[in-house]
Write a structure and sequence with these properties.
- By secondary structure, the protein is an alpha/beta fold.
- The protein contains ten helices and 16 strands.
- A ten-stranded mixed sheet has the order 14-13-12-11-7-10-9-8-15-16.
- A hairpin with a 2-residue loop joins β11 and β12.
């Protein structure tokens, strides 16, 4: 597979490495030549042992257009839609956009959906946790693990973002990037929207349908430098009536990335990084002993599994993938609804028939 990676920051390096580990050809580009040099001389060798000279580096204005199987957009979210639209016009087999897909204003979201459909380009959004092995193990318990009908789902992604800045040492703090601005796709609601996406994923596996109602409370940090939510707490209801909770923050130390599926006959818990380098799935049925599945992995494994999934999806039904564009767009509608709910102090319903626009948000 021939791959173009747009953006030489942290995610661009991860996905370039994952592509090379799968034997794919990679062209990595960025608008900033300093970012390309940093990728070659610092980020990539520090993470993976040595720079891979098979990766071709280009300034964005010089990178080839057309001829790629996969184009990856790994830039800040407020640039995603514009770059993704241009990527679709190149007519690759697929485009993968890092999460979150856009900001809560949903600008261009419906346009991207429509263009990808018109051009026949498969699109994916980088919510890699739902295609990880641990999520697969937890999801398998819903259908055949004896949990019974799922009564409620709780998901938390609570993690101080010091780890993010440790991985981006060239940034002094959130004010230097989109992370410090909720309208640009930052803050807890955008950066940790993995939690919403994972909640949606498990709800779909449980047959509960899409999230249609959101009640949220957000805690904002606002000063002359930043404007972001450090805590986003959501109560959620699906179209089939399943009710649950989702919490995202950028303040919790140590991190807690956790999900619980409570069924009528038992439960399952998903833990990301419960031990160093280990994800864990716990389950118990009818008061029996707790079963524990330990899944060893490295950080690069997350992205390798994501690209393996994408490759397999292209050979089958890409629209059915849990990281397909529609799922990422659904996640953004929930993020947008959370902000609307926090602003108005009221529940917000999502009317999917109105498209991926603010018109889909109906204050109850």
């Amino acid at each position: 597979m021939k791959v173009k990676v747009i953006g030489a920051g942290s995610i661009g390096n991860h996905l370039s490495n994952a592509s090379r580990r799968l034997g794919w050809s990679v062209d990595l580009c960025d608008t900033d030549p300093k970012a390309l040099a940093r990728a070659r001389d610092e980020i990539y060798p520090q993470r993976y042992g040595a720079w891979d000279p098979a990766i071709s580096l280009f300034e964005a204005r010089d990178v080839p257009k057309g001829g790629y199987d996969l184009i990856i957009v790994g830039t800040p979210p407020d640039s995603h839609i514009k770059l993704a639209l241009a990527a679709v016009e190149e007519k690759p087999k697929a485009v993968l956009v890092e999460k979150p897909l856009c900001g809560p204003a949903l600008e261009g979201a419906q346009q991207l959906h429509d263009l990808a459909h018109a051009k026949g380009v498969a699109m994916f959004v980088g919510y890699d946790h739902v295609v990880g092995r641990a999520a697969g193990a937890a999801g398998a318990l819903i259908g055949k693990g004896g949990l019974g009908a799922i009564s409620t789902i709780d998901v938390e992604f609570r993690e101080h973002w010091g780890g993010i800045f440790a991985a981006h040492p060239w940034l002094a703090g959130p004010w230097e990037t989109y992370l410090g601005f909720w309208k640009r796709g930052g803050g807890a609601s955008g950066e940790h929207s993995h939690a919403i996406n994972l909640w949606q994923h498990f709800a779909h596996l449980a047959g509960a349908g899409k999230i249609v109602e959101v009640q949220a409370m957000l805690d904002f940090v606002r000063d002359e430098k930043v404007d972001y939510d450090r805590l986003c707490v959501m109560n959620l209801r699906t179209e089939k009536g399943l009710v649950g909770r989702c919490v995202q923050d950028v303040v919790t130390r140590p991190a807690r990335k956790w999900a619980r599926l409570q069924g009528a006959e038992g439960y399952a818990e998903w833990w990301c990084g419960r031990e160093p380098g280990v994800d864990v799935v716990l389950s118990a049925v009818s008061g029996g002993d707790v079963a524990e599945q330990k899944i060893s992995k490295t950080r690069p494994d997350d992205f390798i599994e994501e690209l393996k999934h994408l490759d397999a999806a292209l050979k089958n039904d890409s629209a059915a993938s849990p990281i397909a564009l529609a799922r990422g767009l659904d996640t953004m509608l929930v993020v947008a609804a959370a902000h609307r709910s926090a602003e108005t102090g009221r529940r917000v319903r999502i009317d999917y028939a109105r498209g991926y626009t603010p018109d889909a948000l109906v204050t109850a």
